[in-house]
Amino acid sequence: MTALHILVTAGPTHEPIDPVRYLANRSSGKQGFAIAAALAARGARVTLVAGPVALPTPPGVTRIDVETALEMAAAVEAALPVDAAMMVAAVADWRVDRTAQKIKKGPDGPPTLQLVENPDILATLAASPLRPRLLIGFAAETERVTEHATAKLTRKRADWIVANDVSGDVMGGAANAVHIVTAGGIESWERLPKDEVAARLADRILATLAPNGSATFDTPDTHCYDPAMSGSITIALKRLPHGEGLPLPVYATEGAAGMDVVAAEETVLVPGARAAIATGFAIAIPPGYEVQVRPRSGLALKHGITCLNTPGTIDSDYRGEVKVILANLGQEPFAIARGDRIAQLVPAPVQRAVLEVVEALDDTARGVGGFGSTGR
After folding, report:
1. What is the strand order of the sheet 259-262 is part of?
2. How confident is the model over 36-62, as pLDDT tens digits?
3. Which of 25, 118, 212, 328 is flagged as catalytic?
4. Closest Cα partner for 242 from 266, 225, 259?
5. DSSP letter string over 82-151?
6. CATH topology match: 5-227 vs 236-349
7. Residue 375: its pLDDT value, please?
8. Whose CB has fewer CB within 10 Å in the chain, the N or C terminal residue?
């Protein structure tokens, strides 16, 4: 298997008016370049079609420089086929029916510019027989951001629209607050550095394209894509009415592997009893991941309180309330108060298997020995 090939467009386009002047916008290309860099760092093969910007090429990225929307459309078409395409560039909607000579001031007043509509690169790609498996558009809006992005998702036939409000300092700035709009709903992220936005998007894209670890990536150290080594993932969380006022799951220390989760109800577990304890929230885990539910070591050691079927698994397609199955293996009743920490949540990548029926298995020194056959 080969590395996933991902196409990214970035920056503005410049549409010439005459040999000296052009129409442009304020796009800096920083977000698109950051996304290309994050994908390449995770082992994807990245083709970056860049408008006229003064940014260095990210390591491991194949860069194609263009100036106009027509040139960008041609470069995108030439890059196909790809596994995914991220249309981050701020492409001009219109170009000028340009003149070969520099426009001069004259007695007749300002010249009249004849505008010609540019090709819609995102919509064209969506209708192409070489349409990528994952097609992502960007929407730079100044009002009703998610409303316009939702309409664009349908109109352009994209899989995702990443929308942002550019009425402030986003264009040319170092931070961005985006909304991920899909057919399943809208996920809003807090304002983050553009590099962090890129990292989160890259993780989400790769998890979507290879949810079961079914593709390999050309990373220098491991020669495979390991989601666990790629930084944080984003898990959507919905607080339920009985969870209002409770702390959300949180890492207690910088090096903690699990997030502490608290109870959303009060109960008493007598010795030998077990119960599913409410947490007051539901989550949507990205495809290709699970969240494991593990006991707290202090509760287990001091009181004999543990989680049954440890580690429990929350699947990526489960949308019900997260509940923790606790059991009292101690000798005393144990009271649980609302807000008490009761377990830990540990996100983890999932490796799925394909079973192959065979007539015989290979021989090993152990053979059929089990249940203590190798020692006490």
Report:
1. 250-251, 259-262, 341-349, 289-294, 312-314
2. 999 999 889 999 999 999 999 999 999
3. 25
4. 266
5. -SEEEE-SB--SEEE---SS-----TT-SPPPPEEEPP-HHHHHHHSTT--SEEEEEEEESSSHHHHHHH
6. no
7. 66
8. C
| Candidates 3.50.50.60, 3.40.50.150, 1.10.10.10, 2.70.40.10; CATH matching 236-349 | 2.70.40.10
CA proximity to 261, closest of 248, 273, 272: 248
Q: Which residue has the higher pLDDT, 25 or 304?
A: 304
Q: How far is CA 135 from CA 25, 89, 126, 199, in A?
A: 24, 14, 7, 18
Amino acid symbol at 334: F
CA distances from 37 to 13, 47, 274, 363 (A): 21, 11, 49, 46
Q: What angle do CA 77, 80, 85 make, to 5 degrees?
A: 90
Give yes or no for residue 165 having a pLDDT over 60.
Answer: yes
Where exactly are the structural domains of the chain? 5-227, 236-349
Residue 172 banded pLDDT, cuts 50, 70, 90: low
CATH annotation of 5-227: 3.40.50.10300
**In the prediction, which pLDDT does 320 show?**
95
Between CA 345 and CA 251 the distance in angstroms is 9
